[in-house]
Design goal:
Elements lengths: L1 H5 L5 H6 L1 H13 L5 H13 L9 H9 L3 H20 L6 H13 L2 H15 L8 H9 L2 H18 L10 H12 L5 H8 L4 H14 L5 H8 L4 H11 L6 H14 L3 H13 L6 H7 L5 H15 L6 H10 L1 H9 L4
Length: 343
Amino acid sequence: EPAREQAQAPDLETLRQQSKSLQQYVDAMLLCGSTQARDWEEAKRQFEVLQPLFVFREDPELIKEFRAGSESARKELARRGVLLRSMLIFGNGAYDRGKWEEARRTLMDAGEPGQFLLVTTLLKLLLNGQNQELWPHLRFALCESGKVALETSAGLARQLADNTPANTPVFHMDDLVQVLMVVIGFGDAGRPALEDLARSAKPNVRRATAKAIGEARDGSAAPTLIALINDPEYTVRATAAEAAGALASARPTLGPALVERIGKERDGKVLEKVLRSIGDLYYGDAVPDLIKVLEVPSREIAEVAMQALYIITGEKLLRKEQWAEWYRTRYADWKKRKSAPSR
């Protein structure tokens, strides 16, 4: 906790507004790391000019001690300059894999204060709606940044969930979805935090959890998604059923769960999403169940079932009667061909 207190990350938007002076401030800090006394004097001169621009709250006291000749203060300012320079690489609005990885390593190697500075910087950028093209890179960098990143991301996800009003539409919950995708990226280590939010009392938080699983396309989160497919709230079931179609790697697990949902689902719109995802997963074992769905009186539901059958089988049949005939006369051969090992 003391290390985290020491490394409170500055707000990047504030830094951008002060960008004309900021580079000079960083340069002054870096001059403190020189072995030349004249560079130290230049750093003192620049700090005098830039006095209003203090990035870390301890800077004024450190600069005061540095001016008084403190060797430890000089070294600490130089260290902070390296960290700040690395942090700003992420905030320049462009992705450079080599520079990002070098900056990430520099901050990681600085111990917990540097790691916390790295994580809070990346999370602030992730929650900036103007950086959508950077979201995949930011999530990857966070998932590569270890325990501090997981703990901070999980804590932030819980905070966002707690602070989100119960009537907030899920399409206004991108911040929570993005942070949850980071948590999902940690695999088994992130599962407790994910499952905790999947059990939230707020349906919109459970929906955001389902959406995050679908957008992350991580099949290892399928058990959590199955619970949401069977949620008591129909809006949650709808979002979870739609998300399932994106998890092709979890077909053996999600396919049976979706088929089982066919017989239980009483909401037509949710059932349509269940059927679409069965098609998206190319789940061939669902063909008999899809044929049975054609018997329902709803034309809309029957059409979605026929679309799923077309995706799975490749058969271009447009009427229920044609599908019934195909199933009666040709399904067995199709299944046999499908089951035959590839040569």
